[in-house]
Amino acid sequence: MYLDSAYALYKAEKYVKSIALLDEGMKHFKENRIWFLNSKYNILDQTDNYSALVDVAIERAEFFKDSPKKSREVVLAYLKSKNNEKAIEWLKITHNRGYQEYVDLLENEAYNSIRGGAEFQQILDSVAITNGIDKAAKAITGTTIEGSPITLKDLKGKVVLIDFWALYCGPCLVEMKNLLRYYPELHYDGFEILAVNLDEDKVKVLNYIDKQKIPWPVLYSGAGWDDEARVSYNLANIPSYWLVDRKGVLRYTGLSGKKLESTIRSLVTE
User: Fold this and answer.
1) What residues make up the domain containing 205?
2) Residue 85 falls within a domain, yes or no?
3) Last residue in a domain, options 76, 108, 131
4) For residue 97, what is the domain's CATH number?
């Protein structure tokens, strides 16, 4: 009741009342506090109450202690409040948690106020080195979900998108629809996707592949988060996209949506 009513108020742009209702809900349903905090964060992110936004972002980051995406939200909240010192402090935490979105750090205008500092540059350089940007992409060897052996090396000569995904990952499935839209066109020109699935229920994955008519190879081990490729690439979260050029060199990480599509198109025509 609280969440639905708060959402209705949010849609009506009655942000203060919506937040007050969420706070009331947290008092009554303490065991579900994180659900209310998630909604509160999304609402506050639409307002200029940056102090409250920071507080909620920090609490969520402390709840999801291993999530670099949640600690990155603290960075962005501090940047909105113009507290660059705290933003850098939390960017270091984000980096230590395994944040790998190199393009985000390289191009996102939200970081402009701290981009010129030495500490930011050190983190950017460290992410590039850790990811292996402009180096030969790490080897991937495995078996497709249909049982055929496959390696990343087999695809050399093509522009390859390594897509780490799972059925429980909503953003993964959203991006999957984007990929399905332009894959047929670009595949003809030398583009391939090597999808690494991190689910443990093979039947559900096969059903999804069949329903969506996914045409590219899907590497599947059944090991879930312990998948060898996931461990090798040291992923802290998904979705995670790694774009490799025709020479087998890792060129980009951290792309998605229209930026991912345009970059793939650019690499294909190089």
Assistant:
1) 141-268
2) yes
3) 131
4) 1.25.40.10
List helix spans (H) across 132-240: 170-187, 202-212, 228-232
Cα–Cα distance, 117 to 175 (Å, whole number): 33
Q: Are both 57 and 153 inside the same structural domain? A: no
pLDDT at 15: 81
Q: How far is it, in rounded angstroms, from Cα 42 to Cα 124?
A: 27
Helix runs in 188-256, H state only: 202-212, 228-232
Average pLDDT for runs of 10 along the chain of length 270: 75 83 83 88 90 95 93 97 97 94 92 96 95 96 95 96 97 96 96 98 97 97 96 92 97 93 95
In angstroms, the CA 262 to CA 226 distance is 32
Say how many domains are in the chain: 2
Rounded CA separation 40/10 (Å): 10
Is 151 a domain residue?
yes
Range 73-102 burial, b when 16+ CB lie within 10 A, else e: bbbbbbbbbebbebbbebbbebbebebbbb
Sequence-distant (≥ 6) Cβ neighbours of residue 48 within 8 angstroms: none
pLDDT of residue 7: 76
Q: What is the CA radius of gyration of the chain?
A: 20
- In 3D space, the residue among 208, 243, 238 whose CA is nearest the CA of residue 225 turns out to be 238
